[in-house]
Design goal:
There is one protein chain. The chain is an alpha+beta fold and 253 residues long. It is built from 8 helices and 9 strands. β7 (172-177) and β8 form a beta hairpin. The radius of gyration is 19 Å and the shape is globular. The two termini are 26 Å apart.
Length: 253
């Protein structure tokens, strides 16, 4: 990633982000086709340039280096409102061109992570303690797979919409504009169409350090989703936390 000074509108800096072509296409589509339709803040997008058959460059407005501080009540309120507005308004956008991010996508993560662990248990680098831990992990994955119909059922009560897919503090920035804090989530390569549960769940501990204030989120989406009450949102957080952990197991393995 590079900062190109005075390369943007009014001489503002531009960020050049090098990425895989597959994920670059996802972000390019979001910045060009979807986000401009929605009443949410997003960096100015300057386009995508392929580098070779595997990589490309994305060019975005430089919105600064200040990441969101979820311990700040005002910033938490701002980001909760931003996410609620995204989910509620994007629900009316056609999902054509967006990857599936429903429960089937995360079941694939479960299956892939389990297979990767089992395929590599013979690695001589692993100790017996390592193998014990990994076998315990595969047992837990088997237990989750056996009750996946319950996960699917929980998702059926949650509306589908555009989801960021990796909505956590490191990917959410804030910039002061005219005396107000403006939210700018970046890194949309995991985005797609599905239940918003992963965006609501914390990226680490299930019970602490939440980025989203669920009551503010609920108030924001209520005009569009009047049935999204607090118990339903709490269940969505549990589902989202599970989805995040399954994806993490797959990536780590």
């Amino acid at each position: 990633m590079f900062r190109l000074h005075r390369a943007g509108a009014a001489g503002r800096p531009v960020i050049a982000k090098r990425c895989y072509l597959s994920t670059g296409r996802v972000e390019d589509f979001l910045y060009r086709q979807i986000l401009p339709q929605l009443p949410v803040s997003a960096p100015r997008y300057y386009g995508c340039a392929p580098e070779d058959e595997q990589t490309c460059w994305l060019f975005l407005e430089d919105i600064g280096d200040q990441r969101i501080d979820h311990s700040d009540p005002e910033q938490q309120a701002d980001v909760s409102t931003w996410l609620g507005r995204l989910h509620a308004t994007a629900a009316a956008v056609t999902p054509a061109g967006l990857a599936d991010r429903g429960p089937g996508y995360y079941f694939d993560h479960l299956d892939s992570g389990r297979k990767n662990i089992l395929d590599n248990l013979g690695n001589p680098v692993l100790s017996e303690e390592d193998r014990t831990i990994l076998l315990a992990a595969t047992k837990r994955l088997d237990e989750i797979a056996a009750c996946w119909d319950q996960v699917t059922a929980a998702c059926e009560e949650i509306p589908r919409t555009l989801v960021h897919g990796d909505f956590r503090p490191k990917n959410v920035f804030v910039r002061q504009e005219d005396g107000a804090s403006v939210i700018y989530p970046l890194d949309w390569e995991m985005a797609g169409w599905g239940v918003p549960a992963p965006d609501l769940a914390p990226s680490r501990d299930r019970y602490t350090g939440r980025l989203i204030d669920l009551e503010i989120y609920r108030q924001t989406v209520a005009p569009t989703w009047p049935n999204m009450d607090m118990p339903r949102l709490e269940r969505a957080v549990v589902v989202g936390y599970l989805f995040r952990r399954l994806a993490a197991v797959d990536w780590a393995s």
